[in-house]
């Protein structure tokens, strides 16, 4: 069985920089402050489908 992954997209520029595993227990979308190499700063990244 393959592991399902979702992307984390930058809320400023929209680039999808990170991939995380999808957990069935998580009901809300994941939001994490991560470094975006395109914005050159730490921004909020949200889980995309």
UniProtKB/TrEMBL annotation:
Tree of life domain: Bacteria
GO cellular component annotations of the record: cytoplasm; ribonucleoprotein complex; ribosome
Gene: rpmG
Gene Ontology BP terms: translation
Keyword Ribosomal protein (UniProt): yes
Pfam families xref list: Ribosomal_L33
Key words, A-Z: Ribonucleoprotein, Ribosomal protein
Family named by the database record: Belongs to the bacterial ribosomal protein bL33 family.
Originating species: Weissella bombi
Protein name: Large ribosomal subunit protein bL33
Keyword Membrane appears in the UniProt entry: no
GO terms of molecular function: structural constituent of ribosome
